[in-house]
Amino acid sequence: MSDDDNSPISAAAAKALFAELRNAPALVLAVSGGPDSVALMWLAARWRRSLARGPELVVVTVDHGLRKDAAREAREVKRLARSLDLTHRTMRWTGAKPKTGLPAAAREARYRLLVKAARAAGATHVLTAHTRDDQAETLLMRLLRGSGIAGLSAMARITQRDGIALARPLLEVPKSQLIATLARAKIGFADDPTNRDPAYTRPRLRALLPTLAAEGGNVRNLARLAARLARANAAVDVLADGAERFLALRDRDRLSHDAPTRSFEAQAFAMLPEEVRLRLLLRAIDAVGHEGPAELGKVEALLAALDRAIAEETGRRASGTGRARFKQTLAGALVSLSRGRILIAPAPARRHRSGP
Length: 356
Prior knowledge:
By secondary structure, this protein is of the alpha/beta class. Helix content is 49%, strand content 14%.
C-alpha cells in the first residue's frame, strides 16, 4: 500500500489485496453501506473486472433491525451493487434482541447469517472490510480487558468459521485511504450514528485515538504492535505444539487413545516455560470440558495452584512424607494431580437442586 494514508487505492494495489482469492469459486462481500464496506465492494468489483476468469462476487447486507434507516441503507447497497453488475442479498436478524450485550449478539448474528449466505452461494470466503483503524481499536479494547498475548494479536487476516474462511483483505489499509478512494470514484456511503455513540466501547476508544496519537500511539503504531504480538503468539504456539507432542510421547502407553482424558507427567510439565504450561492446560481443559471455553484468568489461577501442588509433591516424595493431592474443576473439566501425574478429565455433571 501507499505510504500516503490519504491517497486513493490504485488498481495495482487493489489487485495485490485480492490476489490470493483469485481461484475461489465465489466470494461473499459483507457490505453494510458504510465507507469501509462500500469501498471493499467497489475495489473487489474493479479487481474482478480486470480478470478474464475469477470468482463470482455476491454482496450481502445484514439488516439487524436495530435502526430505522437500516432497510433504506440495504436498498442503497443493492442499487450500487447492481450498478457494478454484482448480485446482492439482504439477510435479516429476526427474533427478540437481548437487553444486554447487544453489540456482541449483533456481531454473532451477523457472522452466522454471512456464513449461511456463503453456503447458499457456494462461496469459500466471506470478505469483511476491517481496516487498520479497526485493528488498532481491537488491540486497545483487548488491552483494557487484560487479554493475553493471543488476544492482543487482535484480528488475523484469515480465520475460519463453520468451514467458511473469514477474510479481511483491508486489514493493513487505513480508513482514510478507503474514503479517498470513494471520493475519487464519486461514490457515496451511509453514516451509521452508532459509530459515534458513547454508549458503546469502540466509539469511546475511537475518541481517545487523537490523544494517543499525539503521544506516538497512532493507528499505524498500534496496528504494528498487534502484528508483532501475532508473530510472537505464533512462535509460542509452535513451542506449545512441540511440548504437547513431547508429553504425549511420554504418556502414550498409559491411557487409551479413545479416552476423553489428557495426562501429563508432572515433572516434565513443570520444567516447561510458564506460557507453554498455560497453553497446554488451556487446550486440555477446552478439549475435555463441557462448559465452554475456559477464561484465561481462571486458567492462570489454576496453573499457579497446580504448580504449588507439584512443588509440594516433589518435596514430600524427596523427604518420604507421602504424596500431595490436588483436584480442581474448571469449565467442565476436572484437573487433578496424583502419583506424579496431571490428569484432565471431564468433570461430573453438576447436580441441580430440585424445587421445594
